[in-house]
Design goal:
By secondary structure, the protein is α+β, with helices and mostly antiparallel strands. The chain contains six helices and 16 strands. Bound molecules: fe (ii) ion. Fe (ii) ion binds next to loops.
Length: about 325
């Protein structure tokens, strides 16, 4: 399909230069107030309406907590790539009662305040989120980021619930959605203000230019669960490989490496798949809802890896962003 016509604005030259220099770009007021209220009411609707009686109570864990040493990887998670599913905050449950270890887990709060994230196919199954995602404007942005056949995958609402919204440790998105060579870009849209104290985004400016993919998050051998594995394959996106010495960089992130972004509801942050980023726990009394989806290169010369946790299920593969009906 052809890219969007030039009259649809994507990124200007300064924005493109800033994205390539820093590894991220903030676009203020990307959503209108009307868009925002539509997406927030859809989010509240989803949180209020999901059926907890049949839910496996899967928690979203990232594998860096002593009490939850593994990344989420059960069947409910692994088959969520083409569904809308609900993953709980680990800290939304009562601690297990040692006297009754077989008792079912008990939530400490209402279910709509206990969900960590909703995913991973809002862009195909929720009309409100689909309209915002598969838009001519995003096609124009992807075109200006040099995508040839951009494909959308892994859309989710991240809730960062008040008081318990869990931290997300430093990572690169291409560790999770690996193509060879890496190509992922994240669209991260604040649905509520996000900054200090409520789990705003921390970005390591420029780290994408040296930051190889040195580990990957994959389906475990044998198909059960997930794991991180060391990675020695292509580590940099193709536009970053020129002049590269091929050795990559071993990094040990320090808190001071990360710049905390202070973004407002409706702002868009574009995140390069090789840039290191994280978010802190939400210690505030307010939720911090954000909507994020990812785009990978589906064009010739980029291969989507068969061990990635998220695999395409339909004949068309992941959703095309260039649709030709501008
Ligand atoms: Fe990320």
């Amino acid at each position: 399909m052809p890219p969007p016509p030039l009259e649809i604005p994507g990124l200007d030259g300064l924005q493109r230069a800033s994205f390539h220099k820093n590894g991220y770009l903030v676009i203020p007021n990307y959503l209108s107030q009307e868009n925002l209220s539509t997406l927030l009411s859809e989010t509240h609707h989803l949180l209020n309406e999901f059926d907890i009686s049949t839910h496996p109570l899967t928690r979203f864990t990232t594998g860096d907590s002593p009490s939850d040493p593994e990344h989420v990887g059960d069947d409910y998670f692994l088959t969520s790539g083409d569904k809308i599913r609900f993953f709980f905050e680990p800290d939304a449950f009562q601690p297990p009662d040692p006297a009754h270890p077989n008792n079912p887990p008990t939530l400490t709060r209402a279910k709509h305040l206990a969900i960590n994230k909703i995913g991973h196919s809002l862009h195909t199954l929720s009309p409100a989120f689909s309209d915002i995602t598969l838009s001519p404007r995003n096609a124009a942005i992807a075109h200006d980021l040099n995508f040839r056949d951009p494909r959308v995958l892994q859309s989710m609402i991240i809730c960062k619930q008040p008081g318990i919204g869990a931290a997300v440790p430093p990572h690169k998105d291409s560790e999770f959605l690996y193509t060879d060579p890496p190509s992922a870009v994240g669209w991260w849209i604040a649905l509520q203000d996000a900054g200090k104290g409520n789990g705003g985004l921390g970005m390591w400016k420029g780290s994408h230019r040296r930051g190889y993919v040195k580990r990957r998050f994959v389906r475990a051998e044998g198909g059960e669960g997930t794991e991180f594995i060391p990675w020695e394959g292509t580590g940099l996106a193709s536009e970053l490989q020129e002049g590269d010495d091929g050795k990559g960089e071993v990094y040990t992130p320090r808190d001071e490496d990360f710049e905390l972004l202070d973004v407002k509801a409706g702002d868009l942050v574009l995140i390069h798949g090789n840039v290191l980023h994280k978010s802190e726990r939400n210690t505030s009394g307010q939720s911090r809802f954000a909507y994020t989806f990812h785009v990978i290169e589906g064009g010739k010369g980029w291969e989507y890896d068969g061990r990635n946790w998220l695999q395409p299920t339909g004949e068309e593969g992941f959703t095309k962003l260039f649709k030709g009906d501008y």
